[in-house]
Inverse folding.
């Protein structure tokens, strides 16, 4: 039976691959994001619905949930990104606070707000996209993703009695998304690949497959977990 799926950040990269998997099964998929143009292009390509919504903005989320189906079978909190990629942490406290807030909002608060807004309408699974950065020590971004995994344990305990699972998929290096585009030297890219046991970068479809499993009835006893999809990359710094 067709399910109702919401994928935040679904216009590009990993979110788009996730939306594609569910759409291919005939599910009703809504993708969200801040930029209208890529969102509508992806929606047209995949045959899904686009909703412009900043997942860090409570007012926009309140408007969004009014437009969503009454029952949400699967929520995928994929929206996020690293706004301080490889930059030195600012020493000016105001700049530091702004940088941390941006990362915490995008990667942690967004999932808390979206899940809370839809909590009473969830029937199947919540899957958050975390990161290997949570275990590496990676500034505000890594701390936000670690916080996501921590908060998910509480969420899992709250939703479990209702038959709703809550899990994190934690990717390692995923090539070909906007996340790393034009930000890696060839040397850095090679070292990220060398750090895996598989000697290959992940692709968005690797993450989509993990999300699809966690959202399936086969995974109904799997909850409160972090599923690493990182080619065996070691997580030490
Ligand atoms: P992308 O930049 O392609 O995807 C991020 C998506 O999130 C974009 O579509 C963006 O759209 C959306 N987004 C960002 N902020 C918000 C917001 N506040 N509200 C709504 N949508 C938002 O990169 P990826 O596909 O690689 O990243 C997807 C997820 O995977 C992220 O959470 C990232 O942290 C995580 N990840 C990625 C890894 C990688 O190697 N690529 C590794 C580990 C984790 P818009 O800007 O229009 O809002």
């Amino acid at each position: 039976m067709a399910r109702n799926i919401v994928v935040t950040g679904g216009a590009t990269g990993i979110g788009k691959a996730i939306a594609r998997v569910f759409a291919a099964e005939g599910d009703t998929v809504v993708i969200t994001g801040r930029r209208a143009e890529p969102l509508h292009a992806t929606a047209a390509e995949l045959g899904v619905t686009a909703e412009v919504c900043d997942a860090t903005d409570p007012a926009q989320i309140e408007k969004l949930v009014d437009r969503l189906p009454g029952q949400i079978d699967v929520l995928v909190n994929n929206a996020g990104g690293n706004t301080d990629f490889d930059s030195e942490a600012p020493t000016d406290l105001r700049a530091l606070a702004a940088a941390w807030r941006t990362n915490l909002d995008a990667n942690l608060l967004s999932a808390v707000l979206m899940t809370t807004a839809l909590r009473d309408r969830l029937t199947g699974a919540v899957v958050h996209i975390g990161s290997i950065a949570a275990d590496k020590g990676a500034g505000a971004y890594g701390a936000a993703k670690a916080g996501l995994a921590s908060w998910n344990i509480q969420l899992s305990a709250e939703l479990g009695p209702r038959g709703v699972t809550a899990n994190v998929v934690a990717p390692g290096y995923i090539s070909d998304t906007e996340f790393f585009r034009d930000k890696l030297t060839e040397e850095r890219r090679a070292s990220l690949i060398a750090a895996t046991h598989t000697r290959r970068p992940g692709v968005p479809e690797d993450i989509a497959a993990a999300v699809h499993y966690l959202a399936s009835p086969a995974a109904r006893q799997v909850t409160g977990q972090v599923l690493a999809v990182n080619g065996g990359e070691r997580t030490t710094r």
